[in-house]
Amino acid sequence: MKNDIKSRGAKSQMVLGVLVIMAGLLFLLDNLDILELHRAISFWPIVFIVAGLVKLYDTQTRGGQLMGAGLVGLGVLIILDRMDIIDFNVRTMWPLFFIGFGIYTIWQARTGKRLVRIDGVKGEQDLNGEGLVDVTAVLGGFERRVYTPDFRGGEITAIMGGCALDLRNSSIQKEAVINVFAFWGGVTLKVPPDWTVVLNGTPIMGGFEEKTATPPDNSKRLIVQGYAIMGGVEVRN
């Protein structure tokens, strides 16, 4: 499992590195007046496309794939608009955001991948008892206190919003992996003091920060991997 995690993280970083190099080459050719790309391609559409491709490659859920595809699509539409190929007006098309978010919410309800409150405990656990979380915050905040005796990880996405997950009442049997994706947003994880936290994330104009106490042993490991693009990920007790 450790080798799989390292291999996947290395491949993901390689893909990101290639995308950044390509973007740099395009900007360099534009600055040297070799290609006329300044009007068609600017910094912001490239950011959406790169973030979307990274999300598509790194996600393990259908919701993450939809989110990544949406970011790529938005970047492409803006570029096509700048090239006068299509007429894309954000002020006119902003209701599409509500439509997309509604479709995503319905999909979550049908698949049952949501957190529900349990009686007698100040916390929440996943509905199917799988010990997995699938949390998304877009243009808003998501805050949950999770309780499960066998936490196995999951996926957390924050796009222009914030996610706060309190796991201090949960436990890990051996090892759990959380994939995080913070794009213009922030993710905060609160973990028990007996968990060993391993950060394998990649910050891009953002940051990963750990503020946890030294555990007595390494019997419970939480691996936090993913990306913070102009955002931040913090793990603390």
UniProtKB/TrEMBL annotation:
<protein>
    <submittedName>
        <fullName>Cell wall-active antibiotics response protein</fullName>
    </submittedName>
</protein>
<keyword id="KW-0812">Transmembrane</keyword>
<dbReference type="InterPro" id="IPR054331">
    <property type="entry name" value="LiaF_TM"/>
</dbReference>
<keyword id="KW-1133">Transmembrane helix</keyword>
<feature type="transmembrane region" description="Helical">
    <location>
        <begin position="64"/>
        <end position="80"/>
    </location>
</feature>
<feature type="transmembrane region" description="Helical">
    <location>
        <begin position="41"/>
        <end position="57"/>
    </location>
</feature>
<dbReference type="Pfam" id="PF22570">
    <property type="entry name" value="LiaF-TM"/>
</dbReference>
<keyword id="KW-0472">Membrane</keyword>
<feature type="transmembrane region" description="Helical">
    <location>
        <begin position="12"/>
        <end position="29"/>
    </location>
</feature>
<feature type="transmembrane region" description="Helical">
    <location>
        <begin position="92"/>
        <end position="109"/>
    </location>
</feature>
<feature type="domain" description="LiaF transmembrane">
    <location>
        <begin position="15"/>
        <end position="112"/>
    </location>
</feature>
